[in-house]
Amino acid sequence: MRYVDIDTWDRWSYFQRYLGTDFPYIVIGADIDVTGLLAFSRKNGLSSYLAMIFSAHHVAESMESFRYRILDGRPIINERMCPSFTYIPEGSDLFVLVTMDFVDDVLEFHERARARITAQNTDPGLDGIAGRYDIIGYSAVPWIQFTHVMRTIGRLGADSNPKMTWGKYFQRGDRMLMPFSVQVHHGLMDGLHVGRYFEELQRYLDGLE
């Protein structure tokens, strides 16, 4: 992690403007095509949920705008980020929060995530993200084909970790689609950057076929 040089950062005036607003967040949802993801997961015996977490994080790591955070009112940038995802143990109605280092290989990530889930069991893991500025939160609502979703914000304006959520798969023609939501701090990026993220994520998922 390092502080951003505000003398050369082209977003500095935007950062200041949005930092002082009552709700400085962008939340954008759209349907993405997960046909390739589901086929790839079946072929390799993977959990499609964990494969989706890997895909979403892999793309986010490649984009500078998703590595920006706010620390004590100043912009910082992370070199690497960690996924923090919800998981519901079998037989439970309560989720646990699994936070782990990211490894940029889908098969190895899947193996490590499975091991971490098993080891954590029903430990809620809710304290694992306190005070961290290097995570992205991932969650699924697989029971709902939602059109909009808003995630919990730790402290209004100061919580700058991106949050991504997806919903129930549905079929359109011969393709499988899924609602996907991105929630980010507007001081750190604009709709343009979120749009580029959706484009890059779809390109990656299409390449899995």
Radius of gyration: 17 Å
Strand content: 25-35%
- How many domains make up the 3D coordinates? 1
CATH-defined superfamily: Chloramphenicol acetyltransferase-like domain
In terms of per-residue confidence, which ranges show pLDDT below 50 for 5 or more consecutive residues? none
Helix percent band: 25-40%
Number of helices: 5
Question: What's the number of extended β-strand segments?
Answer: 10
Overall geometry comes to globular
Spell the H/E element sequence.
Answer: EHEHHEEEEHEEEEH
Taking the sheet with the most strands, its summary is:
7 strands, mixed
Please identify, by name, the CATH architecture.
2-Layer Sandwich
User: Whole-Å distance between the termini?
Assistant: 35 Å
Mean pLDDT over the residues: 95
Return the structural class. Answer: alpha+beta
The CATH topology assignment is Chloramphenicol Acetyltransferase
CATH class: Alpha Beta
Question: What can you see in these coordinates?
Answer:
The protein has 209 residues and is an alpha+beta fold. It has a single domain, classed as Chloramphenicol acetyltransferase-like domain (Chloramphenicol Acetyltransferase), CATH 3.30.559.10. It contains five helices and ten strands; from the N terminus they run βαβααββββαββββα. Strands 2, 5, 6, 7, 8, 9 and 10 form a seven-stranded mixed β-sheet that branches. α3 crosses α5. The chain is globular, with a radius of gyration of 17 Å.
Q: Topology of this structure?
A:
Layout: E1 2-3, H1 12-19, E2 25-33, H2 35-44, H3 48-61, E3 68-71, E4 74-77, E5 82-87, E6 96-99, H4 106-120, E7 135-140, E8 163-166, E9 170-172, E10 175-185, H5 191-206
Parallel strand pairs: 5-7, 7-8
Antiparallel strand pairs: 1-4, 2-10, 3-4, 5-6, 8-10, 9-10
Helix pairs in contact: 3-4, 3-5
